[in-house]
Amino acid sequence: MKFNRMFKRTVKESLKSPSDVRPEVPDGLLKKCNACKAAVFEEDVIRNYNICPHCNNYFRVNAYSRVEMIADRGTFEEWDRGIKSINPLNYKGYPEKLEGLKEKTGLDEAVITGKAEIDGIPVVLGVCDGRFLMASMGEVVGEKIARAVERATGEGLPVILFACSGGARMQEGIVSLMQMAKTSAALKRHSDAGLLYISVLTDPTTGGVTASFAMLGDIILAEPGALIGFAGPRVIEQTIGQKLPKGFQRAEFLLEHGFLDGIVERSKMRETLGLILYQHRKEQYVDGIQEVVDSALSADAVTRDVIQHQIFQEAFGEGNPLKKINAWEHVELARDKTRPTGKDYIGLLFQDFVEMHGDRYFRDDPAVIGGVAYFHGQPVTVLVQEKGCGTKETIARNFGMVSPDGYRKSLRLMKQAEKFGRPVICLVDTPGAFCGLEAEERGQGEAIARNIYELSGLKVPVLSIVIGEGGSGGALAFAVADEVWMMEHAVYSILSPEGFASILWKDSKRAKEAATIMKMTARDLKKLGIVEHVIREEEPLTRENLLDTIPKIELGIAGFLQEYGTYSQEQLLENRYQRFRKF
User: Fold this and answer.
1) What is the pLDDT of residues 148-176, one digit of tens each?
2) Do 508 and 501 contact (CB within 8 A), yes or no?
3) Of 205, 87, 182, which Cα lies nearest the Cα of 136?
4) Which of 168, 196, 371, 545 qualifies as a cystine partner to 355, CB 3.0-4.6 A?
5) pTM as predicted
6) Handedness of CA 209, 213, 214, 215 (dihedral sign)
7) By mean pLDDT, which of 298-312, 468-482, 564-578 is the weakest?
8) CA 160, CA 66: separation in Å to the nearest integer?
């Protein structure tokens, strides 16, 4: 701001001088920020990732500059330059307009595509450039994207597309509309081949691009404040005759409403993309799991059964009696406010966790935390029912009561794990599914049923651990697994003891009595065969002493992944089916 004032004063003083000559500023030295109106040095803006150093406003970035920010230096190989539009509508002046833009921008069209490396990982890259007819999608844009995706499919490479567009190109009419179908179909084939597609939305991404390739990513990221929507704000206001709320259709709005996995600052985009690509490599280092398992084995552990027995004996002390306390005391310990919640386990059990947001339909439910992480070199999908810590966060996370949006978010991530061959690890902790009016309006029962249905046939190993409360179908939607484990003082039941007493005896005050009858403790459920293993814990278990218990869980998970990683899909699914068929 100081520079801005000095600049204005210099101009003002120069106007008062007898010569009345303005100070000369070399072209390209300064640019004006549209947000704060400050005059800033072009060099400072470039050095700051094309972000205003005064107000943090994001300037739009041309395609080649974007490639320089993202790709390893010298690795970008551009594809398919020189494809020409045929002017399908014979629109007057359109060919001349295109030629003028080519000369002005140095581009041949509104997107560049090619092959590059990010942190040494090969990737097919496509970047839209708003300087070329607002990066509207005409025949050539659609063709270049489709060709790039097809080539990525053939070479088994991931795709990253940076979208920025005003939508379909009006000058090409219905032919432009067909590009939505063409690019989407190419991406479907790429997805069916089990390959990763990351879509990055920048300002603005609207119209037919939003309704096609931009919103089809396995992972969808956006830059802060980016305008994203099908119909532009002006069109909406003119159509409905209402003023839109502040922040409408911005990236933050879409994240809240479940359509983005995350918002990533421009300075962190390369790092984030590199980690995601690394997690999705075909070949992964998993020797770390073997090291964890080896630490628990004796020299005579040669057969699979002996190995598994030793692992779980070491991890959970099986064969030794559990502590004897009454059922209601277990309930109180499971509900204790000082008890660790799911997010406490994530940081201690997993490495490089990347959280994914949203159900792609309506909302991002904060009662569910989901994402991709490493477990000693093995990529896994982690799903957690989260109660929160402290009054403010607990309310924000709805006390761990999951809404339909949370179940649909978890299902999306489960199916994504299946596509990429990642095991799924669920941490269960909910008093039950949310039973509010809006939950029923959005199909709570259907959302739970769909999770149970899909989990029963998920073609990757699934492990569920009840770490606190396992309440009714709300918990079961995260616990149709190959194995279900429980923390020693967790509980798992058809509903809460208060609810059980109210329904059967019309007296919720008999909850303590109900807790005993319901057989909801880890000890009871182990005897019933509902859970495979019980993880011993400190009493009470707190965030402070959780670290003492983590090595046991860590060893157990390593043994599970090693064992179930040897199963064929047919064996995995049959064992899971029979696990529940026996009840």
Assistant:
1) 999 999 999 999 999 999 999 999 999 99
2) yes
3) 205
4) 371
5) 0.90
6) positive
7) 298-312
8) 12
